[in-house]
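Need residues for this backbone.
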């Protein structure tokens, strides 16, 4: 009789462990999905910001380029065209970020770093562990109780 009861308890515990594992996996999948959704929304906001900024900066750049060109021709001073050079770099960068392939190139470079230069990503003193956190917490706790 005790053997049957023990066997039933073991089966119940096994089913409960499987349920807990499945539940933990589902929770982790939901967290990963949520984090990815947040990342995608942040990236979309960054691209949208860049496109909006490009509209304003493009207008500024166009007016400035036309004005400086007209001034250089009218006054016969080609030096007035020099500010167009750095402004064109900013304009090109913003255009590439908003409508070009900058994000794709950055993603490719990031993947290359993750694969080939893993040592660049290491934290000083290695990964944070529960033990190191507890040690710091205990030290801080002693510090505050000593005062």
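Answer:
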């Amino acid at each position: 009789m005790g053997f049957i009861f023990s066997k039933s308890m073991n089966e119940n515990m096994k089913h409960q462990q499987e349920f807990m594992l499945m539940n933990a996996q589902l929770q982790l999948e939901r967290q990963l999905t949520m984090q990815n959704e947040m990342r995608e929304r942040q990236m979309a906001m960054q691209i949208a910001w860049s496109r909006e900024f490009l509209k304003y900066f493009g207008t500024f750049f166009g007016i400035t380029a036309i004005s400086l060109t007209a001034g250089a021709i009218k006054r016969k001073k080609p030096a007035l065209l020099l500010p167009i050079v750095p402004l064109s770099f900013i304009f090109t960068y913003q255009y590439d970020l908003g409508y070009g392939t900058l994000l794709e190139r950055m993603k490719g470079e990031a993947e290359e770093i993750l694969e080939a230069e893993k040592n660049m990503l290491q934290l000083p003193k290695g990964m944070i562990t529960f033990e190191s956190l507890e040690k710091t917490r205990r030290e801080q706790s002693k510090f505050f109780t000593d005062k």
